[in-house]
Specification:
Number of domains: 2
Low-confidence stretches: none
Number of helices: 14
Mean pLDDT: 94
Pfam families: Pyr_redox_3 (PF13738)
CATH superfamily of the largest domain: FAD/NAD(P)-binding domain
Largest sheet: 8 strands, mixed
Protein name: NAD(P)/FAD-dependent oxidoreductase
CATH architecture of the largest domain: 3-Layer(bba) Sandwich
InterPro entries: FAD-bind_Monooxygenase_sf (IPR051209), FAD/NAD-bd_sf (IPR036188)
Distance between the termini: 40 Å
Length: about 500
């Protein structure tokens, strides 16, 4: 196994790459990034379906420390975002520290050595500090539909797109109408001979103000000092203002509901079809989606919206609850991800043999500031519980977490500590506060969403402004932690607590 590395990071998406860069800049040289796939990029590596793009503007969906002034569009496509991540990994010399094809199956805290023993497909790796950068949307979910495995044609999840299958002129079924589907459906409508879209719950779709950047605009961003910063700040302020509707005053969502009604009315001429595309829950309760061509796609004569529930899959098609069978050549499952499981299926065992999945089994996932978990020393989560957003860029949240983790690592180094661990009462107080705030948000207005556990507890989203999260994570509060050295029992760190 060898001597422990100073830091081991699991995952090489935005979280893993950005964390590695910031740790290197803080003087941490001995770090390793473990990546199960053959390339970096996380969700932007996996999701290569037609039309894949971001719904946050490019100037904000990028690292503040590595500005890109030549984005091709206001909302960047998948391949451009992936290229940006490869650029960052090369420029900041993270690439040589990534071990590709190394899947992490679990990790166990070694009390005697004050280190993590990380089990991988290539053996055991030891780490003084372990950072999970797995994200919330990496484990694809296939629906439990009778006969799903009996289908004789091509069938795949949207995040595992089979580019070897030519869908031009074919009969295609898309199951699901979430964030991926609203990008896929217009593309398939242009290619397929017949397209059936199976909708369980209608999404709110508003216009997407996307366009290519003009050559002169790129020139200004590149040459004029402060131009890029102004653009980024303007977009941030515009998006941040939406938090008022999501987390403070849900009635303000009526302003966005007007945009939805406008998009639906302009995109769909048939009144009966408009009604079937109209959601039956408050706007914002589920993720709001952006598209200018999703609704118009249903106006094409070869595109059908199916609102009857899928009853079963047969060898040659899809049968709905009304008994109608539709023969298809291919099925695309745009059915989302296991968003509330976080580190699963990895088995993480902390102090005293405590397993993380068991610790989270009853109340759902919980972590102080979404980053640290009591009973799991030197373990830090990126994009953990309570850190997802409905209104702004997750990159902003990740950069807040980078600073917090670096602060913890530097504090341990200065004090000569071997481990720190958030106090259980601090984590519990934070969790209670989150649940209290979440009760008043639009996400708790009566719908089921991927933000929730099976029992209806919201564990994904941050119930506030992103600048409030940045302030809360500006530096680790010493009084929030237990601390120790090898061979010593835990003792409380001196200093003030933060709420």
């Amino acid at each position: 196994m060898g001597a422990p590395h100073d830091v081991v990071i699991i995952g090489s998406g935005f979280g893993g790459i950005g964390m590695a860069i910031r740790l290197r800049q803080a003087g941490v040289v001995d770090l390793v990034v473990l990546e199960k796939a053959g390339g970096l990029g996380g969700t932007w590596r996996d999701n290569t379906y037609p039309g894949a793009a971001c719904d946050v503007p490019s100037h904000l969906y990028s690292f503040s420390f590595e500005r890109k002034t030549d984005w091709s569009r206001r909302f960047p496509p998948q391949e451009e975002i992936l290229g940006y991540l490869w650029h960052c990994a090369r420029k900041y010399e993270v690439l040589p520290r990534i071990r590709f094809g190394t899947e992490v199956t679990g990790a166990e805290w070694d009390e005697a050595e004050s280190a993590w023993r990380v089990s991988t497909s290539s053996g055991v790796v030891a780490a003084r500090v372990l950072v999970s950068a797995c994200g919330q949307l990496n484990r694809a979910v296939l629906p439990e539909i009778e006969g799903r495995d009996s289908f004789a044609g091509a069938a795949f999840h949207s995040s595992r797109w089979d580019h070897g299958v030519d869908l031009r002129g074919k009969r295609v079924a898309v199951v699901g109408t979430g964030a991926s589907a609203i990008q896929i459906v217009p593309e398939l409508a242009r290619a397929a001979g017949r397209l059936h879209v199976f909708q369980r719950s209608a999404p709110y779709v508003i216009s997407k103000p996307d366009r290519p950047y003009r050559t002169w605009e790129k020139g200004v961003l590149r040459a004029v000092p402060g131009a890029y910063a102004v653009s980024r700040a303007r977009i941030y302020a515009q998006f941040e203002a939406r938090a008022l509707g999501f987390v403070k005053y849900p009635k303000l969502m009526g302003l966005m509901a007007w945009r939805f009604r406008k998009s639906l009315g302009q995109g769909v001429q048939d009144a009966e079809l408009r009604e079937r595309l109209r959601p039956d829950y408050p706007m914002g309760c589920k993720r709001i989606l952006l598209s200018d061509d999703y609704y118009p796609a249903f106006g094409e004569p070869h595109v059908e919206l199916v609102t009857e529930a899928v009853a079963r899959i047969t060898a040659d098609g899809v049968v709905t609850a009304d008994g109608r069978a539709r023969e298809v050549d291919a099925i695309v499952y745009a059915t989302g991800f296991a968003s509330t499981d976080f580190l699963a299926p990895m088995k993480i065992v902390g102090r005293g043999g405590r397993e993380l999945g068991e610790a989270w089994r009853d109340g759902g996932a919980s972590a102080h500031l979404g980053i640290t978990v009591s009973g799991f020393p030197n373990l830090f989560l990126l994009y953990g519980p309570y850190t997802n957003l409905g209104h702004n860029s997750i990159i902003y949240m990740l950069e807040s977490q980078f600073r917090y983790v670096v602060g913890c690592v530097e504090a341990m180094r200065r004090a000569g500590l071997d481990w720190i661990e958030v106090r259980p009462d601090v984590q519990d107080a934070f969790d209670r506060r989150m649940q209290e705030l979440l009760r008043a948000t639009v996400w708790n207005s009566g719908c089921r969403s991927w933000y929730m556990t099976e029992d209806g507890r919201i564990v994904n989203n941050w119930p506030g402004f992103t600048f409030a999260y940045r302030n809360a994570t500006r530096r680790p509060a010493p009084g929030d932690f237990l601390r120790g050295r090898k061979g010593e029992g835990p003792r409380r760190e001196r200093g003030n607590r933060t709420a």
